[in-house]
Fold:
Amino acid sequence: MANMIDPFGRHVTYLRVSVTDRCDFRCSYCMSEDMTFLPKKDLLSLEELDRLCSTFIRKGVKKLRLTGGEPLVRRDIMTLFRDLSRHLDTGDLEELTLTTNGSQLSRFADDLARYGVKRINVSLDTLDAEEFRKLTRRGDFNQVMAGLEAAKKAGLQIKINAVALRGINDYAIADMLRWCGNEGFGMTLIETMPMGEMDFHRGDQYLPLSEVRSRLEQEFTLNDIPLRTGGPARYVEVEETGQKLGFITPLTHNFCEGCNRVRITCTGTLYMCLGQDDAADLREPLRASEGDDLLENVIDEAIGRKPKGHDFIIDREHGGPAVMRHMSVTGG
Ligand code: SAM
Ligand code: SF4
Structure:
């Protein structure tokens, strides 16, 4: 079976799957307060998600990340992790992982470790419990801390992802970096991306990471290192803590030339680029036949038009979204 190579010669080896658009938080940069979620009947079943992921693994995907929405609020999600772990056992899949807000880790950390998950990304933008509550609109900071503790106990490696937000965490990032150093967590900073309509102007929260970096450099020595993990992050080593710090800068630095990934929504729509609207429906070919030939043809055709890159821009004139769907739909 043909591996997936796009028109620019990039091999697609990384699949991110949003298993639900629902979430127990409403982070202000990600969702609006009154989100309307998809009717459950539109979602792929766990069996369909397994079949879809397995097809991509046969077509060369080596790394699979489940995300959302909040992946751990999807009912019975552990059965999907359990079933997908068979591809780790055969060696066809090299990494099975997830991005989570951490709220359910106390319940699931042990199972995740049992099903072969080794490293997880936990999104956390502040260590201030009150600020956390405001930002997530309903999250419980202590629950997330307990979740992180459980994940550590289960032996999972943890990377904290924080979105840099002007007026919210700009002055707290240095403390978070120190805290991650003490806890043994990696850390990656992300620029806010213009996705989905918001109830405020994104330019107000947009904080370029170049600015964050200069500020951090007043306290820390940051040495650029050539580490590339196949993702969009550029890394530095923090001399004082010995840890790595990643910067994901879609706005100030375009990272598309090395893109190895595609994304699938919880309804089975394949997005070849996070920042473009072109997509392919995989649910119909998935449901149309029991064999996977039809599905594979649609995938090949879609990879054949993977775009060169995104066109994100946020400034005073461009506060609106570059794409109308929220991050929680495509899976961040
Ligand atoms: N609920 C899980 C979580 O928060 O980790 C997984 C899904 S969430 C959509 C994935 C990541 O996308 C999070 O790290 C979140 O901070 C990030 N994110 C959401 N909206 C974003 C935006 N507009 N710009 C940049 N990052 C965003
Ligand atoms: Fe939920 Fe994650 Fe979006 Fe926050 S960033 S609202 S936790 S999906």
Remarks:
- Confidence is low (pLDDT under 50) at residues 314-319.
- Residues 14-330 form a domain with the TIM Barrel fold (CATH 3.20.20.70).
- Residues 208 and 252 are 7 Å apart (CA to CA).
